[in-house]
C-alpha cells in the first residue's frame, strides 16, 4: 500500500519540478521577447527613415556634403557605373540611423530601465546625455575647425603635382572617417569617469600622468591632422581640456563616495 502511494506521489513531484523549471525559464523568455521587440521597432524606424531620406532629401544632403569641395573648384567624379548610387545609399543609411536614433535610444532605454534602481536610472540618463552632447560637439568641432583645414592642406600639398579629381565614394568615406573619430575622442571625460567608477583609476593617478598624456595627445594630433601648428593645436588643446574635465569629474566622484 505504501509503495502504491509513493508511486502516485512520484508523478506529482516530477510535474512540480517541471513547472518550477518552466517558471525559472520564463524571465529569460520575457527578456528575449523584449529584446526582439526592441530590434524590430528599431529596424523599422531605420527603414522608414531611409526611404524618407533617400526619396525626399538625398540630393540636398549630397549637395551639402560636396559643397565645401565644389566651392573650391574641385571636380567630383565617379569611376564605376554604380558608385554614385551606392554612395547615395551609404549616406542615406547613415542619415537614417541618425534620424531614427531617438526611437532607437528610447527602445534601448525601455529595455534596460526595469533592471536599474532609481539612482542608477538618473545617473544613466545624465551620463548618456553628456556622452551624446560630447559626441555631437566633437563632430561639429571637427567639421568646422579641423576638417576644412585638413582639406585645404591636402589640396595645396598636391596642387603642383596633379589636378585634383576626387571620387565621390572616397571623398564621402574620407569625410566620415575623419569626423567620427573626433566624436569618439570627445568621449574622453566619460571614459575616465567610468574607469574611476569601476576602480581602475583615480584622479590622483590621472593627474600624476598628465605630462605623458599631453605628449600622447599631441602625437595623436600630429598623426591625425596636417603637419601645421594650427591644425595640431585645434585638436590637441580641446583634448587636453577634456582630459582635465575628466580628472575633475573623477575627483568629484571619489569625494561623493567618501561622503
List keywords for this structure.
9 helices, flat, two-stranded parallel sheet, 259 residues, mainly alpha
Describe this structure in words.
With 259 residues, the protein is mainly alpha-helical. It starts with a helix and ends with a helix. The protein contains 9 helices and 2 strands, in the order ααβααβααααα. It has helices spanning 2-56, 58-70, 83-112, 118-157, 168-185, 188-197, 203-208, 210-224, 229-258, and strands spanning 75-77, 165-167. Strands 1-2 form a two-stranded parallel sheet. It is flat and about 65 Å long. Residues 19-25 have low confidence and may be disordered.
Entry summary:
The chain is an all-alpha fold.
- Low-pLDDT residue intervals, each spanning 5 or more residues: 19-25
- Structural class, judged by helices and strands? mainly alpha
Please report the number of helical segments. Answer: 9
- Beta-strand portion reads under 5%
N-to-C order of helices and strands = HHEHHEHHHHH
User: What's the number of structural domains?
Assistant: 1
Summed over residues and divided by their number, the pLDDT gives a mean of: 80
> How far from one another are the termini?
69 Å
Q: What integer value in Å does the Rg equal? A: 27 Å
Find the count of extended strands (DSSP E, 2+ residues). Answer: 2
The shape, in one word, is flat
Helix share, percent: over 70%
Describe the main β-sheet briefly.
Answer: 2 strands, parallel
What is the spatial order of strands in the main beta sheet?
1-2
Amino acid at each position: 500500500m505504501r509503495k502504491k502511494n509513493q508511486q502516485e506521489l512520484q508523478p506529482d513531484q516530477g510535474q512540480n519540478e517541471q513547472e518550477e523549471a518552466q517558471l525559472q525559464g520564463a524571465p529569460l523568455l520575457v527578456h528575449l521577447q523584449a529584446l526582439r521587440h526592441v530590434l524590430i521597432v528599431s529596424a523599422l524606424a531605420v527603414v522608414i527613415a531611409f526611404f524618407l531620406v533617400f526619396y525626399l532629401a538625398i540630393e540636398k544632403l549630397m549637395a551639402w556634403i560636396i559643397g565645401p569641395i565644389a566651392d573650391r573648384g574641385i571636380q567630383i567624379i565617379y569611376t564605376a557605373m554604380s558608385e554614385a548610387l551606392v554612395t547615395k545609399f551609404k549616406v542615406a543609411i547613415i542619415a537614417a540611423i541618425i534620424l531614427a536614433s531617438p526611437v532607437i535610444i528610447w527602445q534601448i532605454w525601455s529595455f534596460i530601465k526595469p533592471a536599474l534602481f532609481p539612482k542608477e536610472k538618473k545617473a544613466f540618463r545624465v551620463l548618456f546625455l553628456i556622452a551624446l552632447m560630447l559626441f555631437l560637439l566633437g563632430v561639429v568641432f571637427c567639421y568646422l575647425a579641423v576638417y576644412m583645414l585638413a582639406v585645404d592642406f591636402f589640396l595645396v600639398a598636391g596642387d603642383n603635382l596633379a589636378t585634383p579629381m576626387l571620387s565621390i565614394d572616397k571623398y564621402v568615406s574620407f569625410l566620415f572617417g575623419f569626423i567620427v573619430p573626433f566624436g569618439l575622442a570627445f568621449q574622453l571625460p566619460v571614459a575616465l569617469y567610468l574607469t574611476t567608477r569601476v576602480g581602475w583609476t583615480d584622479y590622483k593617478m590621472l593627474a600624476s600622468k598628465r605630462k605623458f598624456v599631453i605628449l600622447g595627445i599631441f602625437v595623436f594630433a600630429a598623426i591625425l591632422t596636417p603637419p601645421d601648428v594650427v591644425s595640431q593645436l585645434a585638436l590637441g588643446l580641446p583634448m587636453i581640456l577634456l582630459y582635465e574635465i575628466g580628472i575633475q569629474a573623477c575627483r568629484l566622484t571619489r569625494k561623493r563616495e567618501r561622503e
